[in-house]
Every structure is written in C-alpha cells, then in structure tokens.
C-alpha cells in the first residue's frame, strides 16, 4: 500500500478523490522488470479495479540519479502528451498518474494493467521461440498504428522492442497488443517540445487522468525531486557524448552509422521491421556482441528469410517478407513509412486486411 508521505500526486479531474484512490492502491505481485524499474499489479480495494504500477527507485549516486530522473520525467511527459488524444489509442497503454514518494525515494507511474506477457516472454513460451505469421501480422499492424499515433503528436518511440509490447487479450481480440515504456521517447526534430530536455527537466507538467472519468483530462504540476547540483552537467555530458538511445539490435542503420542525430520517424519504422522479423524467426536479423559488430553485419550480410528447408522455423509469405524488406531499407528516405507514415505501412498487402488506422 502507498504510504502517506507523497509530496505531489498527479491525478484529475477530481484531485481529492483521485488522491484517495491512488493512496489506497494495494500492491500485488511483480509482473515485470526493466532497466530502471519493477512493475507491480495493484488493486483499488473499494472498486476492485486493477492497475499496473511502474516503480522507479531513484539511485543515490548523483549521475545515475539524474539519468533515471530524466527517464521518469520523459515517460511522464509522453503520458501527458498522449492524454491529449481522444479517444486514447487502444494500442498504447494509458497512464493515470505519476507519483513521487519522498519516504521511499521512488517514482510510481500508475497505468492500465495489461493481462498478458510481453512479446519477448510470449515468444519464449513457445517451443520454437517464434510466433505464427498470422499472429505477427496482427501484432505488427497494431504496433504500426501505435507508432502512427506517437508520430502524429510529435514523439519518437526510440525503444520499440519485444519487451515493450505487451499482450492484453480481450474477448474480441485474443492477440491485442499494447505499447508500454516511454522513458526514452524524444521529440521529433522540429516539433513542439513535448518530452525533450526542457519538458523532462526537474519540474514537469504531466497529465492527470482519473481512471473513472473517460477522456477528461486536466493538468497539474508534478515536481520530481532534484537530481543534485550535477544534474544539468550530467545531461549535457550525456548529449555531448552522443550515447546511443535504445537497444542495439533494434537501432536503425542510420543511427548506428551517424549517431543519435540521425534518429527520425524512419528509425522507428526500422525497429518495427526488426520486431516483426524477431517474432517470426526467433532472433533479430543482425545481432552481435557490440554495436560495431551489429553494424558490420547489417552492412555486409543480406537480409535472409530462411524457410524450413534452410533451417528456418517457418515459411514466411512473400508479402510479409516484402513488408520487412521495406521497413529495413538502409536509406531512411526509401524506407517504408518514412513518407506516408502509418498509413503507408498499414496499406502494405501483409497488413492491409487490418481495420483502418482511423488517423
Ligand atoms: N501496463 C503494464 N501492464 C503489464 N505489464 C507491464 C506494463 N508496463 C510494463 N509491463 C512489464 O514490465 C516490464 C518493464 O516495464 P518497462 O516500462 O518496459 O520498464 P523499463 O523502462 O525499465 O524498460 C515490461 O517489459 C513489461 O513486461
Ligand atoms: Mg522496457
């Protein structure tokens, strides 16, 4: 249960009620772990509603603390930006609150609970380590719609990977998947700043959404704790060093070649190509022990779609191969999605059986 020592909560439109609801949440089992957090199931005892709470423990070391704080603030800012979307996209998990607990020195992000495993776990639960093409096509289409929504509000996803797509089955759609984890999100260059360094500074405005009120939002300031004197320097150093964002196997050709400055919406479409391939074949098309090795293989090794006779796990249709090839074009301008966005991707024969993106 949440202790009573929050400094600031983020919830609306009825702050008082929402506050009580968040404070009364009972924590249940751990359902996930990430690089900076643990994710728990939580229940509101009065209503029995269930939530997921991403608990980020703030490190004591000044530099690490600044980095983790910045990631938490980015996620809060992305959640704020996403809450402007009415209705909230089904393919993206909805955040309700961001809470700093002074006693525990933790930040809790309260969000919708997805009831299935992430796609990395789902894949590992199968004997072959991969999923049938029909399922992958459904999932790829949902992720394409999610990316379309993010790009539409000026955000780059950056960290699309199997761990960050979670199954959340419904009766109508047992394969419904939803995007989670927005702590690496960035603004699309040239767009109004939503979760760049300014928005992710020590004071951030986040959306406050009461889980009972459908689509009514209002804002309040949430003050996240200061990262120490070194905070700004740590951020500058981070940027100057051009530390790569995201996960090496998923990073686009241009990002490995030219660094983070080359990251664009096309780079997110590349990650969708890698994700689709990994779900179908059980591994990314190019992997290796270091970014350099991955880049070398990406540059020199052709994209292969081995059928069962060549040791592959399944025969993938030509239209699905074409989709992946289009998403994995080295030149970002030539890549599927780079000009026509989600509509262009969803219009591909492998995905066009899907419901319209509605964007
Ligand atoms: N809303 C949610 N419902 C269910 N599981 C979730 C939810 N959000 C995250 N998870 C699980 O927790 C894991 C870690 O969360 P994530 O946000 O990805 O953390 P990190 O930013 O540290 O990678 C995810 O890979 C996923 O398995
Ligand atoms: Mg993650």
TrEMBL record:
Record flagged with keyword Transcription regulation: no
Signal peptide: 1-18
A molecular function GO annotation: protein serine/threonine kinase activity
Domain of life (superkingdom): Eukaryota
Domain Protein kinase span(s) in chain numbering: 25-351
Gene3D superfamilies xrefs: Transferase(Phosphotransferase) domain 1 (1.10.510.10)
Keyword vocabulary terms for this entry: ATP-binding, Kinase, Nucleotide-binding, Serine/threonine-protein kinase, Signal, Transferase
Pfam families: Pkinase (PF00069)
Statement: the UniProt record of this protein carries the keyword Signal: yes
TM region(s), chain numbering: none
PROSITE patterns: PROTEIN_KINASE_DOM (PS50011)
Enzyme Commission (EC) number: 2.7.11.1
PANTHER family associated with the record: FLIPPASE KINASE 1-RELATED
Stated name of the protein: non-specific serine/threonine protein kinase
UniProt source species: Volvox africanus
Phylogenetic placement of the source organism: Eukaryota, Viridiplantae, Chlorophyta, core chlorophytes, Chlorophyceae
């Amino acid at each position: 249960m949440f202790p009573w020592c929050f400094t600031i909560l983020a919830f609306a439109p009825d702050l008082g009620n929402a506050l009580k609801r968040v404070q009364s949440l009972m924590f249940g089992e751990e359902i996930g772990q990430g690089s900076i957090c643990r994710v728990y199931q939580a229940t509101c005892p009065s209503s029995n509603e269930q939530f997921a709470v991403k608990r980020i423990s703030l490190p004591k070391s000044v530099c690490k603390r600044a980095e983790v704080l910045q990631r938490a603030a980015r996620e809060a800012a992305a959640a704020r930006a996403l809450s402007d979307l009415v209705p909230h996209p089904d393919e993206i998990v909805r955040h309700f609150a961001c809470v700093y607990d002074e006693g525990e020195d933790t930040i809790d992000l309260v969000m919708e609970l997805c009831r299935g495993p992430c796609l990395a776990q789902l894949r590992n639960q199968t004997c072959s380590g991969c999923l049938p093409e029909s399922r992958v096509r459904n999932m790829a289409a949902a992720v394409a719609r999610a990316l379309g929504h993010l790009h539409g509000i000026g955000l780059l996803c950056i960290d699309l990977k199997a761990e960050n797509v979670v199954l959340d089955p419904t009766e109508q759609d047992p394969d419904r998947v939803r995007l989670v984890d927005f702590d690496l999100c960035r603004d699309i260059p040239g767009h109004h700043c939503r979760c760049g360094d300014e928005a992710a500074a020590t004071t951030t405005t986040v959306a406050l959404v009461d889980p009972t009120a459908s689509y009514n939002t209002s804002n309040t300031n949430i003050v996240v704790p200061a990262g120490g004197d070194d905070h700004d320097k740590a951020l500058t150093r981070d940027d100057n060093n051009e530390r790569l964002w995201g996960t090496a196997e998923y990073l686009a050709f241009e990002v490995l070649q030219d660094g983070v400055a080359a990251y664009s919406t096309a780079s997110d479409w590349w990650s969708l190509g890698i994700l689709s391939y990994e779900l179908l074949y059980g591994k990314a098309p190019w992997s290796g022990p270091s970014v350099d090795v991955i880049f070398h293989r990406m540059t020199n090794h052709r994209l292969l779609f081995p059928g069962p006779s060549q040791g592959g796990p399944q025969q993938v249709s030509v239209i699905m191969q074409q989709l992946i090839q289009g998403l994995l074009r080295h030149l970002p301008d030539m890549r599927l999605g780079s000009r026509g966005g989600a509509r262009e991707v969803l219009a591909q024969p492998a995905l066009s059986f899907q419901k319209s993106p509605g964007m």
